[in-house]
Amino acid sequence: SSSQASMKHALECQFLNSCFLGSNIVNRKELVEFLIPRNSQQLKLICQTYGSLYNRDILSDLSEMRTADVFANVIYLRISEAQEHDAAIARDAMFGWRVNLRNLIEVVCTRSSSDLNSIKQAYRVRYSSNFEQDIASKTAGSYKEVL
């Protein structure tokens, strides 16, 4: 029943919250074992339930941790939807310690127009910034023209 599913998601969210307390991901082995069998739809429902229970966006929490913790980045990429994950990769490619054209080109040049529109929207929501303007400010010459 839907009530049982809601309770199950609430328990899963309690587990996730316990893993992220104090901005440190703990229980790495348990967290990996928790995430591996779940599909994208199940993860999306868990993220929604987490937001309802804790009034926080789990992806934002992970996004803040991911620059300092590689494991947090892995968890972020596993939980996020494709367009959010591509937006994060593109953002890192543009604003990391150096511009990573290879990753930026892969995201921009291998996604469909529809996917790129979804990525632009996710990028705008997550980073309060314009994807195309950021690309223009971080690239030059023929790369700037193509991208």
TrEMBL record:
It comes from the Eukaryota. Keywords: Annexin, Repeat. GO terms for cellular component: cytoplasm; plasma membrane. One of its GO terms (molecular function) is calcium ion binding. SMART domains: ANX. It comes from Escallonia herrerae. Pfam families: Annexin (PF00191). InterPro entries: Annexin_repeat (IPR018502), Annexin_sf (IPR037104). The keyword Metal-binding does not apply. This is Annexin. One of its GO terms (biological process) is response to water deprivation. The keyword Transit peptide does not apply.
